[in-house]
Each structure stands twice: as C-alpha cells, then as structure tokens.
Amino acid sequence: MFKAFLFAETITEFDIDSLANNNSDVAGLVDALIILLLIATVVALVSRKLKIPYVVGLVLAGLIVTQGALPDFIGLNPDVILNLFLPILIFEAAINTDISRLKSTIKPIALLALPGVLIGSTITATFYQFSMGLPWITVAAMAVILTITDTVSVIVAFRTVSVPSRLATIVEGESLFNDAVALVLLNVLAGIHLQGSFSLGDGIIQILIAFLGGGLLGLGLGYLCVGLFQQLDDALSSILLTVAVSLLTFQIGQLLQVSSAIAVVIAGLVIGNSGFKKISATTELTLLNFWEYAGFGVNTFIFLLVGIVIEPKTLIATFPLALLAIIGYQIGRVLSIYPLLYLLKKLDRPIPLKWQHVLILGNVKGSLSMALAIGLPLTLPERTQVIAIVFSTVLISLVGQGLSLPWLVKKLQLSQPSPLKQEIEHLQLTLIASKAAQKELDILFQSGSLSRSLYEEIFASYQAKIAQGEKKLRDIYNQRSTTITEDKYINSLKRRLYLAEQGAVRDGVRKGILGEDLAQDYLSTLNEQLLSLKDDD
To answer: Keyword Metal-binding on this protein (predicted)?
Structure first.
C-alpha cells in the first residue's frame, strides 16, 4: 500500500526480471519506511522538547537526509499528492469541522477564499511580472500556486499556542476552500496556455460549473454515505466506506471536470455533521481516531519528503528569488486581507485587527504548492525555474513563518485566557486532583495497605477541598451576570455538554432503551441549542 503512495513510476511489464526487481524494490521500500518512521519519531520528541511546530521539524530533518540515502523511486509524486494525499487531508479536516462554527464564520471565509484569492493572486502576479520578468502566463500560475495557505502548517502552529476558536475556524475554513479556488484557477490558466486565447465569459462559466458541480457532487455522495451508515453502524465497515467516498468523490470530480476539492469538502461536512448522527458513539469515535491517524501519517511523510527532495544547492541558488516570491505574495495578502475585512464590518461581526495580523503572517505554504508546481503543463515557459522557486519558497515559508507564527500569537496576547476561565480552571484542577486521590485511597484501603483511621483522616481532608471547590463553582454559576453567561468559556462548556447529551441519546437508541421518534425530537432541540451558541472569540 505504501509502495503505491510513493512510487513515481509504475511497472508495466511482468516477467521474471521485473518480479525480481519488484521484490528488491519492496525490500528497499521497507528499509526506507523504517528510516522515515524512526526519523519522524525523533523529530516528534525533539520538536516537543524545543517547542517548535512538528512540520517545521520534519522539513529541517529532511534537509539533513540526502536523497541518495533512500531508493530512487521514493519522492514527491504530484499525482499521488493530488489524487491520494489531498483528498485524505481535505476529508479529515472537513469531517472534524463543526457546521455550527462554520456557519457563524462563513462570510469572512467566503471573502478570503473567493475574492481574496483572486485579488491576492492578481497583485502577486503583477509584482512577479515587474520583478522577475517572466511571461505573464507563468507569473499568473506561480502567483495562484503561492497564494493558497497550507492548512496543516497553520493549524499545527496554532496547537503550540492557544488561539481564539473563531480565528482557528476562519483560518481552517479559508484554507479548505482557497485550495479549491486555486485548483480551478490553474485549470483555467492551463486552458488559456494550451488554447492560446481567453474569453472572460467562458472563464466565468467554467468557474461556476466547477463550484456548483463540485458542491452538488459532494452533497450527493455525502448523503449517499449517510444512508449507508444507517445500514452498517459497524466501525470497520464505516472506515472502508468513508475512505472509498473521499477518494471516489475526488476522482469523479476530475472525470466530470468540476471542483474535486469542493466536492470532497462538502461530502466531508455532510458526513461529519449528519452521518455521525446515524451511528453509535463507539463507531463515531473509531472513525474520528482513524482519520486523525491517517491525516497525521500523510502529513508526516509529506513534510519529511519536502525536506528530502529539496537540494541544498538549489535552495542556495534560488534563495534571492524565493525571498522575492515571499515578498510578492505577502504584498498581495496584505492588499487583499485588510481592505476585505474592513468591508466585512458592514456585513458581519468585525475581525479584530490583531487577528488580521495573524492571517497575514499565517499565510504559510506547504506541499500542495509544490505538487501544483510539478503538475504545471510541460510546455509552460520557464516551468523548471518556477518549480525551483516554488520549492525554495515553500521551505523558507515553512521554517520562517512557521516558527514566527507562534511568537506573533504570544506577542499579540491572543492566547491570554479570561479571568473567569482561569478561576474556573483552577477550581476544576483542584476537583480533578482531589477526586483522583480519593480513588487511589479507596484502592489502598481495600487492599489493606491503610488503616481505617488513617484512610478516613486523609479522605476527609480531600473531601473538604472538593466541597470548597464545588461551592465556589456553584457560586460562580448562580451569581453570573449576562456578560459572564456569554463568556466564551461558558459557551464552550455548554457546547461540550450538548454534544455529550447527543452521544448519550444516540447510544440509548442504539441499545433499544429509547424510542426513535422521541429521541429525534430531543436531538433536534439540542441541534438548535448548539446553533444558537455564539462562536468563541
């Protein structure tokens, strides 16, 4: 299976010699995988120790490993990234996206992913045209490739420091949809290059067909999967079904010449927010764990290979142009983000200026940009130079922006918790620790390791801490004002409780304890309460 992931070429003839070579390749592949997994493990430990983003550590480690240390067939195959890795990453992000949060941030996401990409790529292409002197079709393609944001790099950076959940939702949503926009724009540019002409009307129609067709395809296959969930409700079968749907949706989208990325996003959202209601809590947990492992594994190999395939000589030779490329797409980002989000104030909740700074610096590039560069038409002018520039730009962006993003978040004090949250967390810490100690005391007493008098004395001391903590929590709840009620922590707590209720009700239906009709009415009420919660700031 991994061989299919990493092979750059396919064996087309079957004979004794090819079979022997195939066996040799498999042995080399196993050795290479062992090396890569060991490197990834060491990187995970070192990254945690140094408190740097995991993907940055992987890329830096890949630079140390030379291409000659691995078999020749192991590398970044653009077809594999676009047709296998990309659907997995998009689907994994989509099924974990809460539709209630997405609805509350859909306006800024739509602005950034649609006009934001168009404006940013136009400004960036203009900068490249004057600074690099490349043909306009070439700079247009490179600008589109370098305008998109790598979801994984930004989200991983956010995990090292806490950020407002609304900001994280905007970043993740923008990254999901601007990937799709970029793919559509590149198809339009490829058509212009191959045909030698351009019609604005035809371009608009092509974009509309791509988006509307991709959306309908995702809805259709997503709800088909939801219907099959009701028949299965088996963890292993459900895993196979979701893998098949994610990959099949992407392939059908390409055959129909609609946006495959949009189709996978929509299918993932439907399955994650509607399909999981049809299965048991155990099956849902298994599915989410599987997709988390799949996304983590794919990202590990991608970013490690990014560092391996980039030659240090190429990096040094293209370093000035890569810096110029970064300046160009950041200018485009600045001139699109600030004006668009200023206009957003008239349509939706304003985005704080500090958040906008994070959106600018968080414009990190990743493996998709590299795959799109490799996939450019062979006849595109200066294609080789564009690939070299993009590769070097991605590396510098991952390291430079990836390391500075957590610093900026801390500098802007975006991760500073509210006083209410700090007080509640302190009380919860006392309760959790004290109750855990009481459980351990029970075990020691039952085993005969403690006398009754000593057991009762220590148990009572912990019980006093618990009673005091519970009283303070109760006072906070009873005395809260309207402002406190709407505090982001209270909303987050309510969201968790509503989701817990949903899981318990579905489990009761599965076991035959609760009736389907009564449960559905209750679940509908819970969904309304979830959607009514304000998004966290």
So the answer is: no
Q: Which residues does residue 7 pair with via DSSP β-bridges, in sequence order?
A: 74
* CA angle in degrees (0–180, nearest 5) for 167-173-176: 145
* Nearest alpha-carbon partner for 255 in 192, 223, 213, 198: 213
pLDDT band at 499 (very low <50, low <70, confident <90, very high): low
- Please provide residue 74's backbone torsions phi and psi, each rounded to the nearest 5 degrees: -95, 120
Contact (CB, 8 A) for 376 and 183:
no
- State how far the Cα of 98 lies from the Cα of 487, in Å rounded to an integer: 19
Tell me what percent of the residues of the chain surpass a pLDDT of 90: 7
Distance, in Å, from the CA atom of 46 to the CA atom of 38, rounded to the nearest integer, reads: 12
What does the alpha-carbon distance between residue 175 and residue 108 come to, in Å, rounded to a whole number? 12
> Which backbone phi and psi does 7 adopt, to 5 degrees?
-70, 135
Give me 54's structure tokens: 């995991």
The H-or-E segment that residue 437 falls in is helix 419-446
Please report the sign of the dihedral spanned by the C-alpha atoms of residue 190, residue 194, residue 197, residue 199: negative
Asked whether the CA dihedral 42, 46, 49, 52 is positive or negative, the reply is negative
Measured distance CA(289)–CA(197) in Å, rounded: 48
Rounded to whole angstroms, the Cα distance separating 146 from 140 reads 10
Q: 74 has which bridge partners?
A: 7
Q: What is the DSSP letter of 7?
A: B
Tokens encoding 506: 């579905």
- Give the model confidence (pLDDT) of 468-492 as tens digits: 888 887 777 676 544 444 455 566 6
> Residue 514 CA to chain centroid, in angstroms?
36
- Would you state the structure tokens that stand for residue 94, as one six-digit string? 């989509």
**For 323-364, how does the pLDDT look when each residue is reduced to its tens digit (9 = 90+)?**
999 999 999 999 999 999 888 887 777 888 888 888 888 788
3-class SS at 74? strand
Q: Cα–Cα distance between 26 and 32 in angstroms, integer?
A: 10
Distance CA 299, CA 367 (A): 9
Beta strands, E only, 306-444: none
Q: DSSP states of 102-134 as a string?
A: HHHTHHHHHHHHTHHHHHHHHHHHHHHHHHH--
380 vs 138: CA distance, rounded Å:
7
For residue 93, give the nearest of 31, 173, 189 by alpha carbon: 173
